[in-house]
Amino acid sequence: MATSVPASGRHSDKTPLSWHGRNVDFPQPATRVKIEKINIGYPSHMKELSDEIAAKIINAVLEERCASEEGMRRYRPLLEERAHRIVARLVVGPSEDIGSNNDLPNQIHTLLNVADTIVKDELGSNRYPKPACPDNGGCAMCCTHMRIVLSVQEAAVIAGELLGLTKPERAKIAHRLPPLGKSGPGSRCGLLNEQGLCTLYAARPINCRTYRSCSITACEDRVRLGRNAGEEVVFTYPFDDLVRKSFHHRGQPGTTPHFLEMNTFLASVLHDDTRLAAWASGQIPVEDDAMSMT
Prior knowledge:
The chain is mostly helical.
């Protein structure tokens, strides 16, 4: 992400924005931090670096997922078995497809499509038990009991999708936000509608796409009793962790990824049309740069 610049107020000029062919006029903030597009300029020897990238991603997953040496010992072989293939497809492989898209939303959607294909292929390989999550939705345990985070690039895509909704539709989402403005235990994501379905499912972030369970009972136990991260590897899929970390590495290579908490982000843009338009156009208002969880 670019370095923040000092705030210098706002101006009242209105700039038309287009999202899905629909022009919307909103005032634009004068001081913004540009969200960088995905860097396509990988060095020519990237394929030789794939082993190094895979090792880095495996270590990042283990550090995040496993609280004990025993958990790491059990989980590492599962990750190593699939890491090189996934890194080759998601980090090294899609450069030409991403490079042909000049705008950030299309770049992110292309990467998400690649990630979805990898997950579908992994599940179709018969290497793993069938997910306990219903194919047609209906289980919203993750959406109501987990902290949902997204990268700044994904936040720009979400903002664009919100911009394409009507004001009453956006107001419904704002009304659903929990009082404290954060997702996690005891709350629910503001994008989850009254039917238990995601309002912006097609644009949901990679963390939502790559979290599925082998056991609903294990999910219920985790919510009811609390479990440490080392035990969690028992009922989640190793390729989900690898796809998620590879996606974030591809989107922000060589840097520490910048993450936002979903409901905090939604609250910040749904009550401020200027801020929403800025995010949708790929510009972070300077005051929002401090919202990053890095």
